[in-house]
Write a structure and sequence with these properties.
This protein has 17 helices and 12 strands. The chain has an 8-stranded parallel barrel, surrounded by 5 helices. A two-stranded antiparallel ribbon has the order 1-12. One of its GO terms (molecular function) is magnesium ion binding.
Length: 388
């Protein structure tokens, strides 16, 4: 699989200075954690689950979560498990199937070995499990169950803990909770692919819900948690993990209070005024702003609940030609001693030692999402990726 692999090769050649790499479920964890992109959630109860997975893969989705937790009613869990096993078994019997990375969001540790057992050979389609409401106390049994299931199946299985518990939100328990989470995930570091933020649960603890005109960073209590999670769990010194962005809840709005947040000029330059209007009508201007803030705050990838959110996440994850040029300059072997240099674009200072970690992360993102051509911006990437 590859990002933007669903668009024609000649279009990719026009868009990219360096095209996104190909990868598989067996690729190194470091590559996969950066490549998750827009992780699309789907209730495991969907009657056409197998076909839905194939359809989304054909439209550019590279990671999906089949959910047995909050997206379905408590009473539907047994039926959801049965549906999940049946459809994954069906997919495993289709040799031509081109699948995304597949994860299952479970409710209890015991579901992990049970589902792995019930899937039998079809477990080869799974990349791992999403672990809800993760703390050291609640999360460790999930990680232990994952380890046992991995041993029993002979299949590499990753964990994606969801950080969404009230203990993480409350000021008086936050640092202690984060320290415990770090101990738990550090012990299983080789199997923790990414940490996911459950911002909807954070908001629920205070009866809040952000409007489509607002990003998660406008809700100060949520922004403070994101900052502390990145501070303690997302460091670039080798101890950190990939932390993914929070879900965007909206996909169409009827009325807005504030002006749209998308400038007109980038769309006018490439004659894409209708695209801008469509994005605004579907609350995508708020989503695009939040994705930009995710990146600025150290997050990569995003939880998505609607297929229309996938392309914006991927388009804004592509490395610009300018970013790529700066990162390459900073990481040249002759720069190992440090120093300051003017960027090739002559518009900024690149300070080698302080910017090295940024440059390394940028080149990893460039590997999986590609590098745009010098004259290509996010509008062209969005327009090219839209279905006909």
């Amino acid at each position: 699989m590859r990002h933007f692999g669903h668009i024609a090769p000649e279009v990719r050649k026009r868009l990219f200075h360096r095209e996104p790499c190909t990868f598989t479920a067996e690729s190194p964890a470091r590559l996969l954690s950066a490549a998750l992109g827009a992780t699309l959630y789907s209730p495991a109860t969907r009657p056409s689950l197998a076909d839905d997975i194939l359809k989304q893969a054909s439209r550019g989705v590279v990671s999906m979560v089949l959910c047995l937790e909050d997206s379905i009613d408590d009473a539907d869990v047994p039926a959801g498990e049965e549906n999940l096993v049946r459809h994954l078994t069906d997919l495993a019997e289709r040799p031509e199937a081109d699948l995304p990375l597949l994860f299952v969001r479970v409710r209890t540790p015991g579901q992990i070995p049970d589902l792995v057992r019930r899937l039998g050979p079809a477990v080869r389609l799974l990349s791992g499990f999403v672990l809800p409401k993760f703390t050291e106390e609640r999360g460790t049994p999930f990680l232990e169950a994952l380890s046992r299931a991995e041993t029993a199946s002979g299949r590499r299985l990753f964990a994606m803990p969801v950080l969404e518990s009230p203990e993480l939100l409350y000021r008086e328990t936050r640092v202690q909770t984060l320290e415990g989470i770090f101990r738990a995930v550090d012990k299983y570091r080789d199997r923790v692919l990414a940490l996911r933020l459950g911002v909807t649960d954070f908001c629920s603890s205070y009866g809040l819900r952000r409007a489509p005109d607002m990003t998660a960073y406008d809700v100060q209590i949520v922004a403070s948690v994101i900052a502390d999670v990145v501070n303690m769990l997302g460091r670039a010194d080798g101890t950190g993990f990939t932390v993914t962005g929070p879900v965007w809840e909206y996909f169409r709005i009827q009325e807005r209070m504030f002006k749209p947040q998308l400038r007109q000029s980038p769309f006018l330059e490439v004659q894409a005024v209708e695209l801008r209007q469509k994005l605004i009508e579907h609350a995508m201007d708020g989503l695009l702003r939040e994705i930009s803030l995710d990146h600025a705050n150290g997050l990569l990838g995003k939880t998505c609940i609607h297929p229309s959110h996938v392309l914006p996440v991927h388009a804004l994850s592509v490395v610009s030609h300018e970013e790529f040029s700066d990162a390459q300059d900073i990481l040249r072997p002759e720069r190992n001693g440090g120093g300051v240099l003017r960027s090739a674009y002559t518009n900024k200072m690149n300070e080698v030692k302080p910017h090295r970690a940024w440059a390394e992360r940028t080149l990893l993102r460039a590997e999986v999402f590609g590098v745009a051509n010098e004259d290509i911006g996010f509008v062209e990437l969005l327009a090219a990726g839209l279905p006909d």
